[in-house]
Structures are given as C-alpha cells and as structure tokens.
C-alpha cells in the first residue's frame, strides 16, 4: 500500500469508524436523561426553527423587488430584452410575487439556522463517526444543490428561453409579453428541479457508504442509469433537447464520480479491517 493510500486509510479510520475510546467519550458527553428533557429540547428546536424562518422572511422582504429583477436576468442574457417583457396582468400580481419571494427566499435563507438547531438537538445522541457522515452529506448536498442552481441560472435558463421564444415565432404565435406570475413560477420550478436533480448521485453515494449498493453494481447498471437520467431530465427541464442535455450530462459525470468514490470507500474499508 502506497503512502498516499495509507494516509487515506488513516483519515477514513479517524473520521468514519468508531473506537472504544469514542464510545466512552460519547457516553460521558451525552449521559442518559429523562424523556421529558428530550421532549423539551425538541420543543425548543421546533420553536427556534420557526422563529428563524419568520425572521428570514422579514429580512428578505425589502429585497423582493431585487429578487424579481434577478429572476429576469436570464431573459436579458438571452438577448430578449426589448423583444419580450414580463408584465403583471392581474391586480394582485405584485402581491402574489411578493408572497412567493417571502416563502421561497425565506426558506432558503433560514436553512442554515434550521440545520444548526436540528444538529444541536440530534448530534448529542450520535457517535462521532455518525456526526462526521452527516456533516459530509450535508456539505456535499449543499454544494451539489448550489452547483445545479448555478448551472441552470447561468446557462440553461437563457438557452431554454431563447429557444422557446424562437419556436413560438416559428409556430406563428410570437410572444412579446410574459405573464409575471407564470414566468416566476416556471423559473423557480426549473431552478429547484436542477438543484434537486443533482442530489441523485449523493443518494447513491450514501447507499454505497452504508454498503447497500456496491461499485460493481453501479458499473453493471451504468447503461440503465444513463437512460433514467435522460428520462428524468426530459421531465424536469423545459421542452427542448439542449436543456435536457445540459442537465443530463453533468449528472452522468457525477454518476461516474459516485462509482469511483464508492469503490474508494470499499478499498479503504478492506484496508482498515
């Protein structure tokens, strides 16, 4: 075993395996307590999460007009500014968009605080290696979600908007006005779809980490996985081929990376036994 592999094995053993010293430390850190104390902690956790959510919505409220402007950025990047405008066609259009901004934006802004309070409640009852696994999963999940949203916002949306508007013109139904509520709803759904779709490799990695799925099985079913990825991308993206490819290709790359990580984990487990 090379020096690099030895270092990786030691790191894996230190972060994700349990020792008798860990058990003794955990029992001293979180001694048994009455059920009522756990119930009180759960109540406090729920209250703090709810207050964080409300505070986040109040904090983002003054920035709602800026959020609406940011959602129209892909339309400008597509070169459609001046040709197509986003307008409210109902009296309550502005208020509806404002409430959507509060709910979506407040939830996203409050997520770090919510995760923190949930972790404060759950972590004392977990072992060190279990906490490390959860932290790794949350960190990787956040990175993948942000990566998916960034890819969609920076590239896919403007490409899809340009193609859809051009297709409307080809069909002799030129589009010059986009209804604001409908536009915001579509943009938010596509952004969320990209962020959630990029969690798929993380689910496979977690299953492989737990030993439920092996790297050999992932390699054996690679063809089926690629077909499923393209099918899912077809339903989650706007109705154009390029948007489907933009979502599916990175997911296929992440699938290959998942195979490599699961195989690495299997080798490290064998070396630590």
Mean pLDDT: 80
How are the strands ordered across the major sheet?
1-2
Largest sheet: 2 strands, parallel
Q: In DSSP terms, counting alpha (H) and pi (I) runs of 4 or more, how many helices?
A: 12
Count all strands and give the number: 2
Radius of gyration: 23 Å
Range of strand content: under 5%
Write out key terms for the chains shown:
273 residues, mainly alpha, two-stranded parallel ribbon, 2 strands, 2% strand
Can you walk me through this structure?
It contains 12 helices and 2 strands, in the order H-H-H-H-H-E-H-H-E-H-H-H-H-H. The chain has 273 residues and is mainly α. It has a two-stranded parallel ribbon. The longest helix is centred in the middle third of the chain and has 43 residues, at 128-170. The chain is flat. It starts with a helix and ends with a helix.
């Amino acid at each position: 075993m090379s020096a690099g592999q030895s270092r990786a094995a030691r790191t894996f053993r230190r972060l994700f395996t349990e020792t008798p010293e860990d058990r003794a430390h955990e029992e001293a850190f979180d001694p048994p307590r009455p059920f009522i104390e756990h119930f009180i902690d759960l109540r406090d956790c729920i209250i703090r999460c709810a207050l964080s959510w409300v505070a986040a919505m109040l904090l983002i409220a003054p920035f709602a007009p800026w959020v609406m402007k940011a959602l129209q950025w892909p339309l400008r990047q597509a070169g459609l500014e001046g040709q197509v405008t986003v307008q409210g066609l109902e009296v309550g259009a502005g208020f509806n968009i404002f409430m959507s901004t509060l709910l979506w934006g407040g939830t996203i802004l409050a997520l770090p605080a919510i995760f923190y309070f949930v972790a404060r409640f759950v972590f004392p009852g977990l072992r060190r290696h279990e906490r490390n696994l959860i932290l790794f999963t949350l960190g990787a999940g956040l990175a993948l979600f942000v990566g998916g949203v960034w890819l969609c916002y920076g590239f896919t949306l403007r490409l899809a908007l340009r193609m859809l508007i051009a297709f409307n013109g080809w069909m002799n139904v030129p589009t010059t006005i986009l209804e604001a509520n409908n536009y915001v709803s579509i943009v938010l759904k596509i952004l969320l779809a990209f962020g959630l779709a990029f969690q798929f490799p993380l689910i496979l990695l977690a299953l492989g980490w737990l030993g439920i799925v092996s790297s050999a099985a992932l390699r054996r079913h690679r063809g089926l996985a690629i077909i499923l990825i393209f099918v899912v991308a077809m339903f989650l993206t706007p109705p154009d081929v390029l948007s489907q490819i933009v979502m599916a290709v990175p997911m296929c790359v992440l699938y290959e990376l998942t195979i490599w990580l699961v195989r690495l984990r299997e080798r490290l487990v064998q070396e630590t036994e």
